[in-house]
Amino acid sequence: MVESLVTFRPPVGGFFLIILSCLWTITFHCDCLLILCIYVEQCSFVEHRNYKIVYRRYASLFFLVGVDNEENELAILEFIHLLVETMDRHFGNVCELDVMFHLEKAHFMLEEMVMNGCIVETSKANILSPIQLMDKAS
């Protein structure tokens, strides 16, 4: 099974995260565009110039993170795994519909975990406590 990744230059000093469903096609227009076809069973890292794309597939969702070359790929894979575990704890077996219909909660989780391109929070309880408080208030 061949999947397509579209990579482009991430913001300086940070990384970007894209969550894709394997059913959707997303095209980016950018001055640095590279389309790569890779097999899912191969490596989870793609390098281009001085950037890397680290990705992981969970069921029907692809999680892609773009980083600088100096970043540790295994640490980013752990970050993706932590994000999926956090979403699983909140939504219960996260799928693309959870992300689509509760996009603000997914963004809030990312904002709790990442600040200025650096991972600042790794505790699932600390990440989810503000979201649970907002759910109780509404």
Task: Please provide a written account of the structure.
The chain has 138 residues and is of the alpha+beta class. It has helices spanning 73-91, 96-101, 103-113, 124-137, and strands spanning 2-7, 16-21, 34-39, 45-48, 51-58, 61-68, 114-115, 118-119. The protein has one domain: Beta-Lactamase (2-Layer Sandwich), CATH 3.30.450.60. It is built from 4 helices and 8 strands. The strands form 3 sheets. The protein has a 4-stranded antiparallel beta sheet with strand order 2-6-5-4, covered by helices on one side. Strands 1-3 form a two-stranded antiparallel sheet. The chain is globular and about 45 Å long. This is AP-4 complex subunit sigma. One of its GO terms (biological process) is protein transport. Keywords: Membrane, Protein transport, Transmembrane, Transmembrane helix, Transport.
Radius of gyration (Å): 15 Å
Number of domains: 1
| Overall average residue pLDDT | 75
CATH topology: Beta-Lactamase
Poorly predicted regions are 1-15, 21-40
In angstroms, what separates the terminal alpha carbons?
44 Å
CATH class: Alpha Beta
Protein name: AP-4 complex subunit sigma
Organism: Olea europaea subsp. europaea
Main location: membrane
Family: Belongs to the adaptor complexes small subunit family.
